[in-house]
Amino acid sequence: MLDYKPNMVLTSDKQYKVVGTRPVRHDGADKVTGLARYSADLNLPGMLYGKVLRSPHAHARIRSIDTSKAEAMPGVRSVVTGADIVEPTGRASDLAEGAMINFKFLSNNIMAQDKALYKGHAIAAVAAVNAHVAEQALEAIEVDYEVLPPVMRAGEAMADNATLVHERLAAFNTASTRAGGVLDEDDASTGTNIANHFEFRMGDMDAGYAQADVVVERSVSTSAVHQGYIEPHAGTAMWHDDGSLTIWSSSQGHFTVRDHTARLVGIPVSKVKAIPMEIGGGFGAKLAVYMEPVAALLARKAHAPVKVAMNRTEVFEATGPTSGTEISCKIGATNEGKITAAEVHLTFEAGAFPGSPVAGAANCVLAAYDIANTYIEGYDIVVNRPKTAAYRAPGSPAAAYCVEVALDELAEKLGIDALDLRLMNSAREGTRRPTGPLTPKVGYVETLEATKAHPHYSAPKDGKARGRGVASGFWGNNTGPSAAVALVNPDGTVTLTEGSPDIGGTRASVAQQLAEVLGIAVEDVNPQIGDTDSIGFTSNTGGSSVTFKTGYAAYTAAQDIKQQMIARAARIWEVEPEDVQFEDGVLTHRADDQLRMTFQQLAARQVPTGGPIVGRGGVNPGGAGPCIGVHIVDVEVDEETGKVEVVRYTAVQDAGKAIHPSYVEGQIQGGAVQGIGWALNEEYYTNDQGHMVNSSFLDYRMPTSLDLPMIDTCIVEVDNPNHPFGVRGVGEVPIVPPMAAIANAIYDAIGVRLTVLPMNPGNVLEALWEKNGS
Amino acid sequence: MPDVWIPAQMQRITGAPDRVQVEGATVRQVINNLERMHPGMKELLYDEELDDITPGLAVIVDGDVSQLGLMERVQDDTEMHFLPAIGGG
């Protein structure tokens, strides 16, 4: 039993009527009663079913593909291969939210050209009258492969004379996230597996280490893990007689679906309408398209709508996990605990195509600390694994695992409390980051202090082999263009159409911001996600950005409505608009208290007073404030079996203003649980041929509610000055601290530093045996 | 004049120092003037075909990622950085 109230909210000074409350989500009833429709739920008259033939080899040259027997089978309506997809040049393009796309690589990932680059790489696809016929047709496709040796880990890939994943990959040396490229035709240099190498340097490292009394060095390695969303990828495509295309799918950005599919099937974006379905989890991996272009190509050839859906094995083998990594760091500090120098070396596997989140790791690691002398370098390495995709705070968790374990070692050597060490070295507003810019207003110190004051931190640790660990994690949060349109209904409600797919309850958190401005109940707002023909361009639901940017768009739309309503009231009362005020959903005359009208009353009179009232918000706001999370975990280690049990867990996080505290808590809990899975169980287990051998949820072990205690949360509100309500993103940072916090707890329990993820029973036992010499 | 911080790799490629004072009222003007001072910088920072900042780079103006890129106005005391444009998950 806890002796305090869990899920604390340490509120900011600003109080609101709707913002900060916990209404029932608008889409909740449909989701719990099964009415909500997800990607694979769509069925159209005459619809065909697509299936994808995938490479059985991790690395192979494709000598030929013969689809004639499959095409001749009864019930088969179309077959496509790499010859059918547009293969753009290898030039990188910038799309929404700074996401780097090299369309050649994107095209080659969706359908292989001359080489299969990982087990599960798509080789061909079939559309048939039903899924069984489509599967039989896949077996009739003859592919002649020249099997090549796979290169599976970054270390092998970087070695001299390593097998090359791409013979013509160009090496970049840039701090940009350029996702690799190919050598020019007249460039005689040889290819490489090193897609990028960059560095950041600040201060004088030699001088920094010279000032240090204690230096800690630590190396760790992590395995590729998958986001593990419940809903597999699926897409349905239908062509129209005018050459336009409609796509239904769930994604983290239907404008990206539109833009990428248009490019890969060779039509203008204006010819594509992408309709967002409900989404059963994404966590970054549904920022990329896989199925939609394939469905479109099959449907074009078949002259009929086609649905293509992945099964779980395909999701594991052919979508984007996060990177396996090799990371090392060196940190020096004075006896008093002041960190004088820190360096971090990051090597990230990108998968079969360039573009790991190593730049994200570099941006985040050390960013929450005030260190005068820093050096960070990163390598982006291609290997014969599925192309990595974003996963919650991409890059930051693995980097934090290394540094936050090293800080624990440093605290121990110095005899300083682990949180005090972090507090002593915490960045504050104005601190220069290792990558250069100054830190804006942040709540790092407040979050660390709240963690230290939390009852969990001082609670007794009962039991044998029990340990407690803490760790901090940073994420910068993101923003981007976003659109919202609000229609005032005659009954006084508002229909709010927004461009951001709702993954984590953002219909509610965005609607609350509109309702707050208009002074109406959030239940009187009907939030909808518009398709790409119905709402302005909106960047992806990623980077913990939606409550910030789309909330800003809704706020702007509400202000637009407010101004229009003031003008209407002035017209009705035959006064000047300057004499009318709008507060808490009521319009009044500043000097005549007899002139009064509610939002609902004016809504009923909108048509005869000037026509429908439509509020518009199209924004691209800057200043998404960064945040940290600090986690406390208690574990119990079974020294006979190596099993680690999480017995208590508390996550403390700066949320700016928590618009809907329950959904902030849900994000914190979800992120922490995914981090715990990453820490203790999850990994892509591959054999010597590069085949993933645990590609089902039976063998790829994710934590369930039966494995874990309740994740207790503590929200710390330090307003972001760049948002009308002080919002910071909250969805990603909670996955950053768990690995290090658990490693530090295991060390506290049994005196062993775990430096390899996952910290599963085998790895724990090996570390124990090494410690005990047996 | 705006204070421009040059990423380590770009220093190596162009011989530019880690920080340089560059005239200009917009990011575009600063990049053009930087090219005159340290040839090669513009190719690294600017994509001619897109008429935009190099894909994958973000320009940070006084601590915030600029949403206007080349069109962002800068002041005499502005601090500018060119960093990876980070998305998210």
Shape of chain B: globular
Helix content bin of chain B: 25-40%
Q: Strand order within the widest sheet of chain B?
A: 2-1-7-5-6
What is the averaged pLDDT score of chain A? 95
Mean pLDDT of chain B, nearest integer?
A: 90
| Terminal residue distance of chain A | 40 Å
Quickly list its features.
heterodimer; A: 774 residues; alpha+beta; 20 helices; 31 strands; B: alpha+beta; five-stranded mixed β-sheet; two-stranded antiparallel sheet; 7 strands
Protein described:
The complex is a heterodimer of chains A (774) and B (89). By secondary structure, chain A is an alpha+beta fold. Chain A is built from 20 helices and 31 strands. Chain A has a 7-stranded mixed sheet with strand order 4-8-2-17-14-15-16, with helices on both faces. In chain A, helix 7 crosses helix 8, helix 12 runs antiparallel to helix 13 (444-453) and helix 15 (506-518) packs parallel to helix 16. Chain B contains 3 helices and 7 strands; from the N terminus they run E-H-E-H-H-E-E-E-E-E. Chain B has helices at 8-14, 27-37, 41-45, and strands at residues 3-5, 19-21, 46-47, 52-53, 57-61, 64-65, 79-84.
Summarize, please.
The complex is a heterodimer of chains A (774) and B (89). Chain A is an alpha+beta fold and 774 residues long. Chain A is built from 20 helices and 31 strands.
Topology at a glance:
The complex is a heterodimer of chains A (774) and B (89).
Chain A: E1 8-10, H1 28-33, E2 48-54, E3 60-66, H2 68-71, E4 76-81, E5 92-94, E6 100-102, H3 103-110, E7 115-116, E8 122-128, H4 131-140, E9 142-147, H5 154-158, E10 169-170, E11 181-182, E12 194-202, H6 205-211, E13 214-222, E14 234-239, E15 245-249, H7 254-265, E16 272-276, H8 291-302, E17 306-309, H9 312-318, E18 325-333, E19 339-351, H10 358-364, E20 374-382, H11 396-414, H12 418-424, H13 444-453, H14 455-458, E21 466-475, E22 482-488, E23 494-498, H15 506-518, E24 525-529, H16 546-573, E25 580-583, E26 586-589, E27 596-598, H17 599-604, E28 614-619, E29 627-637, E30 644-654, H18 661-680, E31 711-716, H19 738-750, H20 761-772
Parallel strand pairs in A: 1-31, 2-17, 15-16, 19-20, 23-24, 30-31
Antiparallel strand pairs in A: 2-8, 3-7, 3-9, 4-8, 5-6, 10-11, 12-20, 13-18, 14-15, 14-17, 18-19, 21-29, 22-23, 22-28, 25-26, 26-27, 29-30
Helix pairs in contact in A: 7-8, 10-11, 11-19, 12-13, 15-16, 18-19
Chain B: E1 3-5, H1 8-14, E2 19-21, H2 27-37, H3 41-45, E3 46-47, E4 52-53, E5 57-61, E6 64-65, E7 79-84
